[in-house]
Amino acid sequence: MPKPKKPVIEYRHYSLPIDFPVLLLSGDRWRISDIKSEHLHFHNHMEIGICYSDGGIMEIKGESVPFRAGDVTFIPRYLPHTTYSSPNNASLWAYIFFSPEELFRHSLKTSQSHIEPNLWAIQGTNCILNKEQYPKIHTLATSVVEEIKQQSPYYRESAYGLLMSLYIELLRIHASSERLSSQDQERERERDLQGDLVISPVLEFITKNYMMPVTIDYLADLCHLSTTHFRRKFHEIMGTTPLDFLNSTRIEEACKRLKSTEASILSISEQVGFRSISSFNRCFAKLMGESPKAWRKGAHTEAQSAKASILEFTGWV
What we know:
single chain; alpha+beta; three-stranded mixed sheet; 12 helices; 12 strands
């Protein structure tokens, strides 16, 4: 009997605006087809979705969870999922992408080592919140969308406050629904490490520790894989090597610093983890198409800033 075909996993990299690191995707182009995709995908940032019309199915961690108009979805980064509408419908959505640790690190005081939910304890059914049961979530989410769309005076300050309130509510809901024992969580983690999320520990590590020196052997150990198997699995999922992914993360962080600070290029290269200015310049030019000095000079224009979006990989799992 032939083995079932393994799904395609897409990594979708969204580069957040430097001045206000929240990305809104909205409008009529964000209608979801009723054709079930063979692809799962995951992102480098947290996704908040608002369904404005119709309904359908989201597949999350092997669960098929129904959604309908008025629902708000809450998808942590690196969590594979896909969405499709009910037959003969095309549900309308808006999506907000942001990094809680980056956006709220100076505002949220917590005893936790990080302020994002435990990926291993997330259940698919907890990622979709309906309007009737969670009216506050719906009000906050739609208010964030409207603030960013309308861009009235002080809209960033308003959107920031609304988004932080929304995120706190989501954390509260997640905390109250997290009922897995530590043993159950470990079993869930082991199951995921054999499937789509096998490289998630490395993605998390690079996101938080891109500036530190690291070896391939260490990254492989994080996934409980041999170095050879890790290299192969990472490339299958991400469409690139671990080193290239690490360097692209460092360059994107360098772009933020080049635009938002007056630090020297040498200092920035060291801050993001490059051991020499020559390797930084070479890697920057390869990914961005010009030198750091030239990029910084033109970085105040929107067209130049858009070049900070440098990754979109597709691979087979």
